[in-house]
């Protein structure tokens, strides 16, 4: 889409006046004199999430063990209740969604279920730019199946060190491939893959395919009725703003409900026979059959609360602002910062990028440190990327403009030279 932007603080303030989501800022806890650009790693706390967490806490405080039957069994069925709120974000049926675990444990569950190697089909295709935890989990399952990761795992090479070509992925869909796991959005470059095309091509070849939505859910709407993946996993603490370590999610396509869960647990048993205490697993008939242990109520409650925001405004409107405000940030980078060695490392086209901008610079690490001391919370990734996520629910256009001014000042004043190149653990 073509956007019409102008330089100047007054224009940024005008964009805020026209922003139909601007009022949502009041529903989040924003620190005064701080510009938060790290929502792609950990979203901010909302008042809706806080209210839901405190409500759950108070029910436990009052009811103790009776919490499981309180409010017509709400907390016993918490995954199903939250799934109902999640379904518009991926256009799936409620019974295809479960809320449990972490993204890593859910990859383990998916791989344990769907990776059934044979002599002819035993390869797993991933991309070389994928987030490490996905690879760790897959290697673990490969070893448990009695194979060597170096014989099974096939990594699609990047042509430019930033993005992955859909053509290259499809060209590797050979008859020896049993499973494909890819990120919907690449964490380093914000590239949004053509999920529908890739999934369709995989299925034409009889290959099972799943998606990691960590860097897209809550920022990019997905239509799983069209894409038709076999499974998907995601975390809830980034764009979904459910809190650090919040309970993750998983999608199991209804066409796979007949499969046996690779990992079995008590809550995956049918409700009607769960308390009969049989040692024979009676798997639930839908995605709930992939649930494991007892619900982590206090890690799920904030997600339950914050999803009210998404359902209030609609994920399509969230995406519309996300695309607009990231395009505005890229405009300012091109207009004001390119002469200082800054460049953009993510795709420019709307249909090819997620919710964050990848700002590249030879001094990106020290610049990211200087940003923090200037009231900006960014996100750094090796070797030269500052990830900036103007999250649609709570970041303003004026904040984006001020961010660019700070980035310019750090270079002009050579403020980054005051910082060491020695890496710290979390940044």
UniProtKB/TrEMBL annotation:
<feature type="binding site">
    <location>
        <position position="237"/>
    </location>
    <ligand>
        <name>pyridoxal 5'-phosphate</name>
    </ligand>
</feature>
<feature type="binding site">
    <location>
        <position position="266"/>
    </location>
    <ligand>
        <name>pyridoxal 5'-phosphate</name>
    </ligand>
</feature>
<dbReference type="GO" id="GO:0019441">
    <property type="term" value="P:L-tryptophan catabolic process to kynurenine"/>
</dbReference>
<feature type="binding site">
    <location>
        <position position="294"/>
    </location>
    <ligand>
        <name>pyridoxal 5'-phosphate</name>
    </ligand>
</feature>
<feature type="binding site">
    <location>
        <position position="215"/>
    </location>
    <ligand>
        <name>pyridoxal 5'-phosphate</name>
    </ligand>
</feature>
<keyword id="KW-0662">Pyridine nucleotide biosynthesis</keyword>
<dbReference type="Pfam" id="PF22580">
    <property type="entry name" value="KYNU_C"/>
</dbReference>
<dbReference type="GO" id="GO:0097053">
    <property type="term" value="P:L-kynurenine catabolic process"/>
</dbReference>
<feature type="binding site">
    <location>
        <position position="212"/>
    </location>
    <ligand>
        <name>pyridoxal 5'-phosphate</name>
    </ligand>
</feature>
<comment type="pathway">
    <text>Amino-acid degradation; L-kynurenine degradation; L-alanine and anthranilate from L-kynurenine: step 1/1.</text>
</comment>
<dbReference type="InterPro" id="IPR015424">
    <property type="entry name" value="PyrdxlP-dep_Trfase"/>
</dbReference>
<feature type="modified residue" description="N6-(pyridoxal phosphate)lysine">
    <location>
        <position position="238"/>
    </location>
</feature>
<comment type="pathway">
    <text>Cofactor biosynthesis; NAD(+) biosynthesis; quinolinate from L-kynurenine: step 2/3.</text>
</comment>
<protein>
    <recommendedName>
        <fullName>Kynureninase</fullName>
        <ecNumber>3.7.1.3</ecNumber>
    </recommendedName>
</protein>
<comment type="similarity">
    <text>Belongs to the kynureninase family.</text>
</comment>
<dbReference type="GO" id="GO:0005737">
    <property type="term" value="C:cytoplasm"/>
</dbReference>
<dbReference type="InterPro" id="IPR015422">
    <property type="entry name" value="PyrdxlP-dep_Trfase_small"/>
</dbReference>
<dbReference type="GO" id="GO:0030170">
    <property type="term" value="F:pyridoxal phosphate binding"/>
</dbReference>
<keyword id="KW-0378">Hydrolase</keyword>
<dbReference type="GO" id="GO:0043420">
    <property type="term" value="P:anthranilate metabolic process"/>
</dbReference>
<feature type="binding site">
    <location>
        <position position="104"/>
    </location>
    <ligand>
        <name>pyridoxal 5'-phosphate</name>
    </ligand>
</feature>
<dbReference type="InterPro" id="IPR015421">
    <property type="entry name" value="PyrdxlP-dep_Trfase_major"/>
</dbReference>
<keyword id="KW-0663">Pyridoxal phosphate</keyword>
<dbReference type="GO" id="GO:0030429">
    <property type="term" value="F:kynureninase activity"/>
</dbReference>
<dbReference type="GO" id="GO:0009435">
    <property type="term" value="P:NAD+ biosynthetic process"/>
</dbReference>
<comment type="subunit">
    <text>Homodimer.</text>
</comment>
<comment type="function">
    <text>Catalyzes the cleavage of L-kynurenine (L-Kyn) and L-3-hydroxykynurenine (L-3OHKyn) into anthranilic acid (AA) and 3-hydroxyanthranilic acid (3-OHAA), respectively.</text>
</comment>
<feature type="binding site">
    <location>
        <position position="103"/>
    </location>
    <ligand>
        <name>pyridoxal 5'-phosphate</name>
    </ligand>
</feature>
<feature type="binding site">
    <location>
        <begin position="131"/>
        <end position="134"/>
    </location>
    <ligand>
        <name>pyridoxal 5'-phosphate</name>
    </ligand>
</feature>
<dbReference type="GO" id="GO:0019805">
    <property type="term" value="P:quinolinate biosynthetic process"/>
</dbReference>
<dbReference type="InterPro" id="IPR010111">
    <property type="entry name" value="Kynureninase"/>
</dbReference>
């Amino acid at each position: 889409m073509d956007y019409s932007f102008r330089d100047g603080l007054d224009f940024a303030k005008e964009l805020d006046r026209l922003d139909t989501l601007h009022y949502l800022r009041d529903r989040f806890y924003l620190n005064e004199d701080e510009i938060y650009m790290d929502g792609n790693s950990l979203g901010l706390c909302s008042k809706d999430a806080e209210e839901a967490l405190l409500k759950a806490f108070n029910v436990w405080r009052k009811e103790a063990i009776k919490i499981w039957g309180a409010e017509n069994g709400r907390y016993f069925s918490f995954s199903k209740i939250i799934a109902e709120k999640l379904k518009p974000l991926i256009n799936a049926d409620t019974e295809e969604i479960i809320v449990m675990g972490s993204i890593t444990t859910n990859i383990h569950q998916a791989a344990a279920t769907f990776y059934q190697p044979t002599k002819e089909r035993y390869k797993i295709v991933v991309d070389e730019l994928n987030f490490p935890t996905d690879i760790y989990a897959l290697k673990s399952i490969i070893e448990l199946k009695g194979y060597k990761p170096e014989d099974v795992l096939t990594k699609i090479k990047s042509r430019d060190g930033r993005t992955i070509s859909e053509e290259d992925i499809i060209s590797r869909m050979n008859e020896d491939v049993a499973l494909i796991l890819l990120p919907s959005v690449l964490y380093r470059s914000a590239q949004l893959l053509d999920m529908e095309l890739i999934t369709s091509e995989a299925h034409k070849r009889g290959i099972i395919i799943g998606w990691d939505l960590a860097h897209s859910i809550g920022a990019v709407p997905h239509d799983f009725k069209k894409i038709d993946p076999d499974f998907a996993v995601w975390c809830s603490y980034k764009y979904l703003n459910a809190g650090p370590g919040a309970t993750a999610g998983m999608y199991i396509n209804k066409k796979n409900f007949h499969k046996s869960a690779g990992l079995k647990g008590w809550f995956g048993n049918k409700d009607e026979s769960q308390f009969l205490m049989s040692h024979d697993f009676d798997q639930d008939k839908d995605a709930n059959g992939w649930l494991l242990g007892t619900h982590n109520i206090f890690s799920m409650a904030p997600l339950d609360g914050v999803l009210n925001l998404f359902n209030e405004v609609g994920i399509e409107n969230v995406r519309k602002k996300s695309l607009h405000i990231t395009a505005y940030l890229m405009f300012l980078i091109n207009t004001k910062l390119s002469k200082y060695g800054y460049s953009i490392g993510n795709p420019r086209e709307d249909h090819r990028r997620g919710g964050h901008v990848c700002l590249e610079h030879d001094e990106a690490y020290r610049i990211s440190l200087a940003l923090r001391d200037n009231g900006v919370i960014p996100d750094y990734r090796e070797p030269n990327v500052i990830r900036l996520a103007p999250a649609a629910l709570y970041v303003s256009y004026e904040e984006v403009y001020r961010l660019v001014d700070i980035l310019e000042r750090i270079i002009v004043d050579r403020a980054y030279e005051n910082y060491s190149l020695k890496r710290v653990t979390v940044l």
